[in-house]
Amino acid sequence: MESAKSVASERSSKVDLSRPLHVRTPLLESLPLSQIYGQRVYIKMDNVQPSGSFKIRGMGVLCQDAKRQGASKVVIASGGNAGMAVAYGARQLGMECVVVISDNVPHRMVDKLKLEGARVEVRGNSWDDADVRAREIVAQEGGYYCHPFDNPLIWTGNATMVAEMKEDLGDRVPAAIVASVGGGGLVCGLSEGMKVAGWADVPIVAVETRGADSFRASLRAGNQVTLPKITSIAAALAVRKVCTRILELYRERSIFSMVLSDRLAVDACNRFADDHRALVEPACGASLAAVYSNRVTEMRRQKKLDPSRPLVVIVCGGSAASRQQLEEWTKTVSSTGTVSPLDHSGID
Predict the structure, then answer these.
(1) What residue numbers bound the domain in which 328 lies?
(2) For residues 179 and 288, what is the distance between their CA atoms, to the nearest angstrom?
(3) Is 163 part of a structural domain of the chain?
(4) N or C: which terminus of the chain has fewer CB atoms within 10 Å of its end residue's CB?
(5) Transmembrane region positions (predicted)?
(6) Would you call 212 helix, strand, or coil by DSSP?
(7) Does the active-site annotation cover 166?
């Protein structure tokens, strides 16, 4: 069997940079979520992207930019999903890839990254720690540095999912789009795409898990702040400081901030697996939990969201998700004690 590196080397001379590295994903009606919400709920299934998450949309654009600039190696610090996307993109484009992850990323991710041909290093317990090492590698060895969320090219790539949703929904305009927040790259991309689609007045419900809620912390402080540490198990959201652009967007458009517990996020992962036969990780479970826990239903009843319009939830995915890993996440949150079904923080 050919190694990922040998295949990448062969592909390097056959690259078509005009073709995106992501695929068009389905927008499906979810009957279980619709029943909870009281109106149609559509799920954007970016968990079926070739890298396992929406991240390939933005990171694919970055990898192609690196190739155009003549780079032979890309380097990234990642909570897992962005790293998988860059590793996949690098393999498709015939480039070397180095991924630095933090030690809270599931061990299974190391094997998956290596299978994509990436060199993997582990550093610290948050993305910020891993990023220090990634920048050191670029300084010492050279290569194209890929930020996982704070780059306009990434936002442009992430915006492509809105164009797909617009085509699928036709004349129907959503009441809101629900999406998870780590560093803010997904929300920035959604906002960009929604402006082009004529949905600039459609709210975004930005969901974080408690212990990785750097967006909420910044909103409360009135400026960009850095969390002292990450305590959430949602490794893909383990960013201590969001990008400044998402804070600007909060002032420019309608964005609701929502913070939920790890337990609600993991419970949503389990329920989604039963309802839709798909495995996602807690970072994605956070946005699903916004519906499963009735939080957005409350918003609809309070007329914060147009009750006559459908809801869209971004199923951002999760490269680390597996049956065994989901069982481990479930055991971890179960050991923290019993919580109310409405274990959450308020909406700003």
Answers:
(1) 22-54+152-334
(2) 8
(3) yes
(4) N
(5) none
(6) coil
(7) no
